[in-house]
Every structure is written in structure tokens, then in C-alpha cells.
Design brief:
The complex is a heterodimer of chains A (112) and B (112). Chain A is mostly beta strands. Chain A has no helices and eleven strands. Chain A has strands spanning 5-7, 10-14, 19-24, 29-37, 43-50, 55-58, 61-66, 71-76, 85-93, 100-102, 106-111. Chain B has 112 residues and is mostly beta strands. Helices cover 0% and strands 57% of the residues of chain B. Chain B has no helices and eleven strands. Classes of the chains: A mainly beta (112), B mainly beta (112). Chain A binds chain B through residues 3, 30-31, 33, 35, 40-45, 48, 88, 90, 92, 97-105, 107, and chain B through 4, 31, 33, 37, 39-45, 48, 50, 55-56, 88, 90, 92, 94, 96, 98-106.
Chain lengths: 112, 112
């Protein structure tokens, strides 16, 4: 499968702590994106990192990309209860057209 | 308007029924997607339309029939579904040069 694999599958932390999740993929990408999903409803785009970028920040989010290892990480700093959700990486593989493929996801629980 | 609207939100149908899921966006996006998501799993790509033409069909059974009548609308026609087709069906749209995808809230389908 070309899909990204994510770890951990689930993460439980206290409010204020940082949450880190990782994503690995198998083939060359155009870009890698991270999405959040609350309670099995629609996905919300968080951040996109292009294949020629190594790190990107957006608010409390920090994403890294290592194309040599075909991996990415998402760090959420100073987590809040409202960050409780499932987080998915999604890859747009080269030569695959508009094919946005999702990894397995990490379920994050932030305890107040 | 950065919204993708899906109707209905919930649908219960029998295995002999014919129903349709609808999706609408007014962001000028010329790529639209259908995804299927089972509980605690990532979204799985079903179909991609680019400039109102079907560009990707991920070997989806013919009981699912997509239609893109114009650049703002995407339909998914359902016929003779099986109970295992019960899932959350997500519609998304993006620029054709894929960057951020915008998702609707989904239709939760139950086949009885």
C-alpha cells in the first residue's frame, strides 16, 4: 500500500503537555498534509508541507518532513482538551494525480 | 464560503433501495472526491472528479455510481447496497493542483 502509516495509534496526555505523532509513507510525494477529525465527522485541514520543505509551523502545530526517511511528524504543543480528536496524515503521491491518501490515524485524548 | 455541504446527514436504506448522496461546494474547486470511512479507520478514496470528468475510480463496486452534473455538485447514487457498505461517506473538494482539501461533514449511511 502507498498509504502512510501512523504511530502511535492512540495517545493519552494531560492538558498542557505536548503530543507528537509520526507518519511514514512508501513512495515519492508532492506534499504531505495533516488533518484533524472530531467524533467521526468531517476532516479539517491543519497544515501542508511540500516535499522540498523540512519544517513548518502554524500556531501550536509544528510539522517536520524527512523525505530521505519518508516520514513526517506532527507536534502539538501545550495541548488543550479541545485538541482531543483523530489526526491523519495524507499524502499526495507523485504521478498519481489528485489522489490524496490517508494514513491510519492517531487518536489523541487530552485529559483536563 | 469555504464550506462543502453534504446531504443528507444520516441515511438508512434497505438493500433493495435506490438513494443518492449529494455534495455541493461554491469555492470554484474543479476537483471533487468521494471517500468512505469505517469506524476507527482512515478515509478510503473511492472516486475523483477533475473538471467534471471521472479521473480516478478506486475499483469501487458498480452499486456505487458517481455523477458530477456541474462544477459545484457531486452525487453518489446508491443501489442494491450490502450491510457492509454501512459507513460514513465523505465528500471533499480542492484545487485541481492538489493542495488543501475541504471536507463536508459526511453522510452516515446504514444499510439494513
Amino acid at each position: 500500500s502507498q498509504q502512510g502509516e501512523e504511530d502511535p495509534q492512540a495517545l493519552s496526555i494531560q492538558e498542557g503537555e505536548n503530543a507528537t505523532m509520526n507518519c511514514s509513507y512508501k513512495t515519492s510525494i508532492n506534499n504531505l498534509q495533516w488533518y484533524r477529525q472530531n467524533s467521526g465527522r468531517g476532516l479539517v485541514h491543519l497544515i501542508l508541507i511540500r516535499s522540498n520543505e523540512r519544517e513548518k509551523h502554524s500556531g501550536r502545530l509544528r510539522v517536520t518532513l524527512d523525505t530521505s526517511k519518508k516520514s513526517s511528524s506532527l507536534l502539538i504543543t501545550a495541548s488543550r482538551a479541545a485538541d482531543t480528536a483523530s489526526y491523519f496524515c495524507a499524502t499526495d503521491f507523485k504521478a498519481a494525480g489528485n489522489k490524496l491518501t490517508f494514513g491510519g490515524g492517531t487518536r489523541v485524548l487530552v485529559k483536563p | 464560503d469555504t464550506e462543502v455541504t453534504q446531504t443528507p446527514k444520516h441515511l438508512v436504506m434497505g438493500m433493495t433501495n435506490k438513494k443518492s448522496l449529494k455534495c455541493e461546494q461554491h469555492m470554484g474547486h474543479r476537483a471533487m472526491y468521494w471517500y468512505k470511512q469505517k469506524a476507527k479507520k482512515p478515509p478510503e478514496l473511492m472516486f475523483v472528479y477533475s473538471y467534471e470528468k471521472l479521473s480516478i475510480n478506486e475499483s469501487v463496486p458498480s452499486r456505487f455510481s458517481p455523477e458530477c452534473p456541474n462544477s459545484s455538485l457531486l452525487n453518489l447514487h446508491l443501489h442494491a447496497l450490502q450491510p457492509e457498505d454501512s459507513a460514513l461517506y465523505l465528500c471533499a473538494s480542492s484545487q485541481v493542483r492538489l493542495t488543501e482539501a475541504f471536507f463536508g461533514q459526511g453522510t452516515r449511511l446504514t444499510v439494513v
